[in-house]
Amino acid sequence: MDVDKRQFRKMFPHIAREMEGKETRISIASVRSDPEAAEKLASKQFEGYDPDVVDFLRRCDNKKQAEEIIDYLERKRELSHEYAERLRKQLRKRGVRSFGPKKKDDYYISQAGLKE
């Protein structure tokens, strides 16, 4: 189908505007024809990643949940007493969001580009 620019703009004004704008361009580095191979490659971003206490705290909705996480990890000896106390102090003074923005349930999936 042969369409000139003017006709294309008339038929698809939003797409034409996006195509002509510089800030909305996305470069494509590669194309994978095998979806399973593409998914494996994308999911390798977090391969071997072991979430730390801050990752868990960023999932908390409130101070009580954060305290439970710190207490649990300290009991399991995954946190030293000194580090647990520093986290509790930060939690008391600055609140749960001082550890970073809340991580949604699908955080790692969306970061790896696997969310549809």
Name a few traits of the molecule:
single chain; 116 residues; 53% helix; 7 helices; mainly alpha
Number of helices: 7
Poorly predicted tracts of residues: none
3D shape: elongated
Number of strands: 0
Proportion of helical residues? 40-55%
The value of Rg in angstroms is 23 Å
Mean pLDDT: 79
Secondary-structure content class: mainly alpha
Give the amount of beta strand, in percent. under 5%
Order of helices and strands: HHHHHHH
Structure description:
This protein has 116 residues and is mainly α. It has a domain of 80 residues. Helices cover 53% and strands 0% of the residues. The chain contains seven helices and no strands. The longest helix has 14 residues. The radius of gyration is 23 Å and the shape is elongated. The relative contact order is 0.11.
Helices and strands in order:
Layout: H1 5-11, H2 13-20, H3 35-43, H4 53-57, H5 63-75, H6 81-94, H7 107-111
Helix pairs in contact: 1-2, 5-6
Task: Give the structure's gist in a few sentences.
The protein contains 7 helices and no strands. The chain has helices at 5-11, 13-20, 35-43, 53-57, 63-75, 81-94, 107-111.
